[in-house]
Design goal:
Number of domains: 1
Bound molecules: zinc ion
Helix content: 10-25%
Largest sheet: 4 strands, antiparallel
Low-confidence stretches: none
Mean pLDDT: 88
Number of strands: 4
Distance between the termini: 26 Å
Length: 91
């Protein structure tokens, strides 16, 4: 989709700071897989796909390797990506 790599080291550091080594709340396992891709959550509009309308929430999925429990960490707060600079020249 895009070839911009995320700042995975920043994410790992963020998780170590905030999360520490707490185990999975679902199964108690302590083996996580941190995605190196950013996904996005869109506001739900009754199933209709509304483009270019409303904010998108960028998230990094962290998935438990044992049970599949997936925790979505905000990609901006975890420093995975830079906050996009608004292009005011086109207005
Ligand atoms: Zn688990």
């Amino acid at each position: 989709m895009n070839d911009k790599k995320i700042n995975l080291e920043g994410v790992i550091q963020h998780l170590n700071e905030k999360w520490g080594n707490r185990p999975c709340p679902m199964c108690g396992s302590n083996s996580w897989n941190v995605s190196d891709n950013v996904y996005e959550l869109r506001e739900f509009h009754g199933g209709d796909l509304v483009l270019g309308n409303g904010p998108i929430l960028p998230v990094i999925p962290v998935t438990c390797n044992n049970c599949g429990n997936s925790i979505l960490v905000n990609a901006l707060m975890s420093r995975a990506i830079e906050r996009p600079v608004e292009d005011t020249s086109k207005k």
